[in-house]
Design a protein that fits this description.
The structure holds three protein chains of three kinds. By secondary structure, chain A is mostly helical. Helices cover 74% and strands 0% of the residues of chain A. Classes of the chains: A mainly alpha, B alpha/beta, C alpha/beta. Chains in contact: A-B, A-C, B-C.
Chain lengths: 271, 314, 204
């Protein structure tokens, strides 16, 4: 099987996984995660494949709900991040030296600070919660993509066919929309797909640390952090299944992004 | 001069085929044969020029000999060096020692390393320092040049440094890939002199170029590359007059299209690897073509001191 | 029409002039050769004439008036490497149409086949691509054509094909042509007049 076929299959799998999680989260009513002390702390069984927690809630239902919240956060934050990267990258490359210096400085600054630290600071300042997390992730994840886009646009601007286009009487706007932007779309797509798992993981990490989503929003980070208290009493399933599901989604998108990147890279396009 | 018999060739390429795996439609890959049944040999002390238009895949011949084809390429056929078939392992051992590549420009040098030092890293026998100095001396590169970085070299110095790299390595086979584009007459002549010099010391030189005039100036034999293969290998003295001594109609057309020889264009264009015609690859443009030409691809055969891939050649 | 460059000076950095005090003029219908060793600013002069660079000193005039800064440039330059001069993501028909409508018969004369129009640049050879670049530059609005080593990378047959067409079109449309080539024989074959930059360029 060649890389394009593999990529198509991973895309379909990842999409099915996502749709499955979101659709089931919508179908699962609150009664599924109602407390039921008769069945609390049960290990995985046929009735409850992921087991139940200390309040007798079904862990499968909680995991699915948690994942759908995380995916939502991931999609919004990664999209925002990619848009910021595109705008700043294009501005840096086209608006002259001063703008370029300012944006490059900002990129270096943000890349110098570990994501998690910057993320904690931003979402703490915004008072935590869903808004804090989304804004935090969006504001911290754009720099590496922006840098790629800036370099790409700069190179394109001096490409012979772009210069020729100008002499054939085409306006700057025409060139930007016909020659430059279409070139950026694959970059942007790959950037987005690679940002997405990052965003989810970071959302989970800061929620786990208690600085992200609040406990009544059943995100994966919250589930993991709550279950830590019960791990020592042997209730492994509380953290194991949600953790594995998170990992699977992240990994699926990682593979997808990596394949897309290789296909758009001329050096490995024909593998 | 050419010694066709007795001696073993330094490099012998027999029936080389190079193919690439490429996407032909959205999801299907297929193999595209870019070089087909190419044969060429080089004897010590000889310069063989492989002449073909740019993008025709002739650089792949160099890459195949050096064992540096890209990942999605595969090849068949026999490449032997000094009478022994080359394996990937042996290619890696010989690369840079026995077989050297002279690249097109200083961009292939390490930009952060002083050139003297850099040339010393190519020395495999004897004292690197004195060997490098000796070769630089020969090309009138003063001791100050040793301390320069590649970007500080003038065009002429850069060419001498690149040639020195091949010379100090003690390589017996030198492959030069397009060494002349963008150079003016004087610089071309200078570069070509260095190759003649290498050959006169007993090296075999393979000059890969699209510039037939440069090739005619120094090569002993010319291999003409057309649509993925060599159509003719001719001694350089056959390129004279109206081209009567040449064997293949394409070579004749190439010769007559030179601005000083008539500037006559021939209609049509070279077929690309995926659209090769049946039979002889040149047959659709050939005036002498007969029905046999479109049925079978002609094999390389010897005609008067040269080789040709045409059934009508005499 | 007359394309003239007066007292052109150009430099990329202080005190390192690439061109200084260069005068050149080309009449419509003339084929002029531009020669000189590498580093004498042949390509830079071409880029200035075609409006790709602004001269540091001096000016370029077309019939006494400055050239337009936007819109179709009447002086078109054809580069050495056609692979870089076309958008790799566009089909050839789109590239060809970029400068506006073309004379259909030109495609036939240049040997451009109909099925090439639907292809992407990586599906064509250098010689085939260069024919497209020449066709695109020979727009009806073009008054002067500059060829910077236009056929240096091509085989002699393709070189002869392309130049025969350019000569023919230049004669018919009364275009001025400037030829840069390191090949003396080509210059001798094509040009009615030769400008030597080693004499004209006063850079020191």
């Amino acid at each position: 099987m060649n890389r394009r076929q593999k990529t198509l299959i991973t895309t379909v799998c990842a999409a099915l996984l996502l749709i499955g999680v979101i659709a089931s989260a919508l179908l699962i009513g609150d009664e599924w995660i109602a407390t039921n002390f008769e069945i609390k702390n049960e290990p995985p069984s046929l009735a409850h494949p992921f087991g139940t927690d200390w309040l007798g809630r079904d862990m499968l239902a909680r995991t699915v709900k948690g994942l759908s919240v995380s995916i939502g956060v991931g999609v919004i934050a990664a999209t925002a991040s990619a848009v910021i990267a595109l705008i700043l990258g294009m501005l840096a490359a086209t608006m002259g030296k001063a703008v370029d210096n300012a944006i490059s400085w900002l990129i270096d600054l943000l890349l110098g600070v570990p994501h998690l630290v910057a993320l904690i600071l931003i979402s703490f300042t915004l008072g935590g919660g869903l808004k804090g997390v989304v804004v935090g992730i969006a504001l911290t994840h754009w720099p590496s993509l922006a840098r790629v886009i800036r370099a790409e646009v700069m190179q394109l601007r001096s490409a012979e066919y772009v210069l020729i286009s100008r002499k054939l009487g085409k306006s700057r706007w025409w060139i930007a929309s016909r020659h430059i932007l279409p070139h950026m779309i694959p970059q942007l797509l790959v950037g987005f797909v690679l940002l997405f798992p990052h965003a989810i993981l970071h959302e989970a990490s800061i929620s786990f640390l208690g600085l992200g989503l609040s406990p009544h929003q059943p995100a994966i980070g919250i589930i993991l952090s709550e279950s830590m208290r019960y791990l020592t009493s042997g209730m492994w399933w509380l953290a194991f299944f949600p953790g594995i599901s998170l990992l699977m989604i992240v990994r699926a998108f990682d593979i997808l992004g990596e394949n897309l990147r290789k296909l758009t890279d001329p050096h490995s396009a024909h593998q | 001069m050419t010694t066709q018999s007795g001696e073993t060739p330094l490099l012998e390429v027999q029936d080389l085929c190079v193919s690439f795996v490429q996407y032909t439609s959205c999801l299907r890959q297929s193999t595209l044969q870019v070089i087909n049944n190419l044969s060429v040999s080089i004897y010590p002390g000889e310069i063989v020029a492989v002449v073909g238009s740019s993008g025709s895949g002739k650089s792949l011949l160099a890459h195949a000999v050096l064992g540096i084809l890209p990942g999605n390429a595969s090849f068949s056929g026999v490449i032997s060096y000094d009478g022994q078939a080359l394996s990937p392992k042996r290619q890696a051992e010989l690369r840079g020692r026995e077989i050297a590549l002279i690249p097109q420009s200083v961009n292939y040098l390490d930009p952060l390393m002083r050139v003297g030092k850099q040339v010393q890293t190519s020395v495999h026998a004897g004292n690197p320092r004195s060997r490098q100095r000796e070769v630089f001396e020969r090309y009138q590169l003063s001791p100050d040049v040793d301390k320069l970085f590649p970007f500080q070299l003038s065009g002429g110095m850069a060419r001498r440094v690149l040639v020195s790299t091949a010379l100090v390595s003690g390589a017996r086979l030198v492959i030069a890939d397009e060494p002349t584009p963008g150079l003016d007459d004087a610089a071309v002549a200078e570069t070509l002199d260095y190759f003649r010099d290498l050959a006169d010391q007993g090296c075999g030189v393979m000059l890969i170029t699209h510039d037939i005039e440069a090739a005619l100036k120094i090569a002993d034999r010319i291999a003409v590359f057309y649509a993925g293969s060599t159509v003719e290998i001719a001694p350089v003295q056959d390129f004279a007059g109206e081209g009567e001594a040449l064997r293949h109609p394409y070579t004749k057309a190439l010769w007559r299209a030179l601005p000083q020889n008539g500037f006559e264009p021939m209609p049509g264009s070279q077929p690309l690897p995926h659209e090769l015609p049946a039979g002889c690859v040149f047959q659709p443009r050939c005036r002498q073509a007969t029905s046999e030409c479109s049925t079978e691809r002609p094999a390389m055969r010897t005609v008067r001191e040269g080789m040709v891939r045409c059934i009508h050649a005499t | 029409m007359l394309l003239e460059a007066k007292q052109i000076g150009f430099r990329y950095e202080r005190d390192r002039w690439v061109l200084r005090g260069v005068d050149i003029s080309i009449q419509s219908g003339e084929i002029v050769g531009l020669v000189g060793p590498s580093g004498f600013g042949k390509s830079t002069l071409c880029r200035i004439l075609a409006g790709y660079e602004k001269p540091y000193e001096g000016q370029v005039l077309l019939d006494g008036a400055p050239l337009p800064a936007s819109g179709f440039h009447p002086v078109q330059l054809v580069f050495q490497h056609p692979e870089k001069a076309v958008n790799p993501r566009w089909r050839m028909s789109r590239t060809l149409a970029e400068g506006g409508a073309l004379d259909e018969s030109l495609l036939g004369q240049l040997g451009i086949q109909q099925e090439w129009l639907g292809r992407f640049p990586n599906e064509l050879s250098g010689g085939e691509l260069q024919r497209f670049c020449v066709a695109r530059a020979l727009n009806p609005q073009t008054r002067f054509l500059l060829a910077d080593e236009m056929t240096a990378m091509l085989d002699t047959i393709t070189q002869a094909q392309i130049w025969q067409v350019v000569k023919e079109v230049a004669r018919r449309e009364n275009l001025g042509v400037l030829v840069i080539s390191h090949e003396k024989n080509l210059i001798h074959r094509l040009c009615t007049r030769v400008v030597d930059l080693t004499i004209t360029n006063e850079k020191t």
